[in-house]
Recover the amino acids of this structure.
């Protein structure tokens, strides 16, 4: 087998492995226009409307500081349904806010009300979100963050665009 | 050809004349030193160099304030998103000269508003510096902020979050030059209004949560070049460097940011600059030692930046008790002796009075309702009573801050303060200092801070560097307190529904003006703190008011519109649906 052929096989194995490890990569290449739109919309909610990135960082790798100790969503083991529930209901006893306007007014969240939670009541998010928006954020995160390793320059440019110096340090780091 | 040239020259002369109003006098050092001689103007960030935020105008007073009403408002911009933020905030103090009001929005646009008619504000120019919003906004800890401009000669001096300082033609808004002072590439931003002393513009870098090494920096306004830079965290061989005992040169990213305007004493030619928290904020075990000059005040020579003395409020601070806020200069009789004081309502919950000549401790007293981190201050040194001189990592009161591997703390006052950046005001006629503050407790959870890259670690510049996180699940409230600066005694006290982030204005009409998170803009009786007038602007206020006069008539102006802290609105359901705005409101009788 020639060198070129071996390289080609190696590359295709690597692609298969990558595909297995990160199904989102495959999904990205076969997105329907609707899915693509939903993911882009989810990004906008993550970035600006609900400013999830304030605490979780733009690449969803988690952060510390004034937003509290926010977990990495790249490393999360939550299923999409569980993630949607956490966005909707927050995480009692932590700083993760709830985004369903009516959370804890009835028993829709973890079968608990505000009175049940007392000081463990999570804070309200900066903005409340509709189910459609929560669904979009979850789809965005599973397409672009969950299960991925450290973020890359390309991902940074994908998030912030090319009209800013924001991603230059990542380019320089290469 | 010759005729055309003459016409062109004539035309440009006429244009130049039209653009240079005869009334707009140059701003001089002499005028700045004597700002009290121009009560119709608000010439300096803190009203005067002494940081009093006191207007001598008396037309609006305790008797007449009931007639105060909105005269006009002006819509501003700055709503663009950028970095971690959805929009810019208004936290600025307006500067007013001859009926023209100069304000900034959070992204650093400067607005010159012609209010000479007394009945409306016309934006005569706006200078948008084109800030790289994602770049700067991603390394701003606490919002997109800009606290205002300074005047110098026929120019406006301003800053932008991305670290630039600008000289602008005051008459036209034309940008004359800019200088890159702070560098967002390493987590530095600028949010403070410049302090101009003679021909130097003095600013500092914010970024205490992003692993910067803080500094105070002077720009020579005649050349646009740096005149001096003094790091707030001493380097190798400098006095105080030995208070960083980690052995790994962690002073290189030790914090000590600078983000509010200093006061200035002409008599001794000294500026008094409050210095921010050490980095990382909450993992004090990362940085054993007292960590000078974080959480301190520095007295410096404004001509060369040399440090005359320093006083540290919270050594080895594990709370984020960032002491950048103003240090008013006050003359007072202490124990029968006339003293020249520099005072400070500290984020750590104590009021301090120091001798401003040598920095020695004079008086200290708790002004917040709840304080659990120390039983008090040593009456001789001003140090916390439970400070351990032999200890490298201060414990203070057990459980009052996070420790590696320990449960989250209960911290009182909360790490927000006490008084945060929002300025006090001082009425020299009544001898009272008005402290607007944040009351209540919250919780700090320490996480062992990873090393910076330059020490073999994984943390890179621009990454958050706080050694843990905070949690605020119990509602905070606020207060306004009138304190005798000679003793620290609270002479009057008022509980506020919301933590205060706006700052005070005191007037010779015996009033104190204060804005609130629910949009109330209120005047209080300066002796009793009883509310005597209030108007709701419909959006939260995070900026201090000023007073001035046009054609002999007194006005009060305040900026309104800011991202309210989610730790305020998230726990106050009645504020949850408040929208922001970007407005200047102007009141008169």
């Amino acid at each position: 087998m020639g060198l070129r052929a071996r390289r080609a096989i190696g590359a295709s194995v690597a692609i298969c492995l990558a595909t297995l490890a990160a199904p989102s990569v495959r999904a990205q290449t076969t997105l329907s226009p609707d899915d693509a739109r939903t993911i882009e919309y989810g990004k906008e909610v993550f970035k600006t409307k609900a400013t999830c990135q304030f605490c979780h960082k733009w690449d969803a790798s988690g952060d510390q500081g004034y937003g509290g100790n926010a977990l990495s969503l790249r490393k999360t083991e939550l299923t999409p349904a569980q993630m949607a529930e956490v966005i909707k209901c927050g995480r009692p006893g932590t700083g993760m806010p709830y985004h369903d306007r009516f959370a804890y007014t009835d028993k829709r969240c973890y079968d608990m009300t505000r009175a049940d939670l007392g000081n463990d009541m999570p804070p309200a998010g900066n903005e409340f979100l509709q189910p459609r928006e929560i669904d979009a954020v979850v789809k965005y995160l599973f397409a672009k963050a969950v299960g991925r390793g450290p973020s890359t320059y390309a991902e940074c440019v994908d998030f912030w665009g090319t009209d800013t110096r924001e991603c230059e340090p990542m380019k320089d780091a290469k | 050809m010759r005729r055309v040239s003459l016409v062109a020259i004539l035309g440009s002369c006429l244009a130049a004349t039209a653009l240079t109003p005869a009334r707009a006098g140059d701003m001089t050092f002499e005028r700045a030193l004597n700002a009290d001689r121009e009560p119709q103007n608000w010439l300096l960030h803190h009203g005067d160099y002494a940081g009093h935020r006191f207007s001598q105008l008396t037309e609006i007073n305790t008797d007449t304030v009931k007639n105060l009403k909105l005269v006009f408002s002006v819509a501003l911009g700055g709503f663009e998103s950028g970095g971690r933020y959805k929009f810019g905030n208004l936290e600025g103090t307006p500067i007013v000269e001859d009926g023209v009001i100069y304000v900034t929005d959070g992204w650093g646009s400067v607005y010159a508003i012609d209010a000479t008619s007394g009945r409306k504000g016309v934006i005569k120019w706006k200078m948008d510096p084109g800030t790289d919003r994602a770049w700067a906004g991603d390394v701003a800890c606490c919002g997109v902020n800009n606290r205002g401009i300074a005047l110098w000669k026929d120019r406006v001096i301003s800053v932008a979050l991305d670290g630039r300082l600008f000289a602008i033609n005051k008459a036209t808004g034309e940008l004359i030059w800019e200088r890159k002072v702070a560098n967002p590439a390493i987590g530095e931003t600028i949010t403070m209004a410049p302090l101009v002393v003679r021909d130097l513009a003095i600013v500092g870098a914010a970024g205490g949560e992003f692993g910067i090494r803080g500094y105070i920096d002077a720009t020579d306004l005649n050349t646009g070049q740096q005149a001096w830079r003094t790091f707030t965290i001493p380097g190798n061989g400098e006095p105080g460097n030995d208070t960083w005992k980690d052995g790994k040169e962690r002073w290189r990213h030790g914090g000590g940011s600078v983000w509010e305007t200093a006061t200035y004493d002409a008599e001794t030619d000294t500026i008094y600059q409050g210095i921010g928290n050490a980095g990382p904020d909450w993992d004090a075990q990362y940085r054993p030692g007292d960590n000078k000059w974080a959480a301190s005040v520095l007295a410096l020579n404004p001509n060369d930046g040399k440090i005359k003395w320093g006083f540290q409020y919270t050594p080895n601070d594990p709370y984020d008790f960032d002491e950048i806020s103003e240090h008013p200069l006050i003359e007072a009789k202490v124990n029968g002796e006339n003293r020249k004081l520099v005072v400070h309502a500290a984020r750590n919950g104590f009021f301090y009075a120091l001798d401003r000549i040598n920095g020695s401790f004079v008086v200290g007293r708790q002004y917040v309702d709840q304080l659990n981190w120390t039983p008090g201050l040593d009456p001789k040194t001003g140090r916390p009573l439970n400070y351990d001189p032999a200890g490298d990592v201060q414990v203070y009161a057990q459980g009052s801050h996070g420790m590696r591997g320990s449960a989250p703390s209960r911290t009182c006052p909360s790490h927000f303060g006490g008084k945060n950046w929002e300025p006090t005001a001082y009425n020299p006629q009544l001898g009272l200092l008005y402290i607007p503050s944040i009351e209540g407790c919250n919780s700090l959870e320490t996480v062992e801070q990873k090393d910076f890259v330059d020490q073999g670690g994984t943390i890179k510049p621009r990454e958050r560097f706080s050694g843990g996180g905070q949690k605020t699940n119990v509602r905070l409230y606020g207060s306004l307190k009138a304190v005798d600066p000679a003793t620290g005694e609270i002479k009057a006290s008022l509980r506020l529904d919301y933590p205060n982030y706006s700052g005070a204005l005191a007037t010779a009409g015996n009033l104190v003006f204060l804005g609130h998170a629910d949009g109330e803009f209120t005047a209080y009786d300066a002796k009793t703190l009883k509310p005597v007038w209030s108007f709701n602007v419909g959006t939260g206020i995070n900026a201090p008011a000023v007073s001035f006069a046009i054609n002999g008539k007194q006005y009060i102006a305040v900026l309104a519109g800011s991202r309210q802290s989610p730790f305020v609105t998230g726990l106050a359901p009645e504020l949850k649906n408040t929208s922001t705005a970007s407005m200047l409101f102007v009141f008169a009788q």
Summary: The two ends of chain B are 58 Å apart (CA to CA). The longest helix of chain B spans residues 2-19. Residues 142 and 565 of chain B are 9 Å apart (CA to CA).
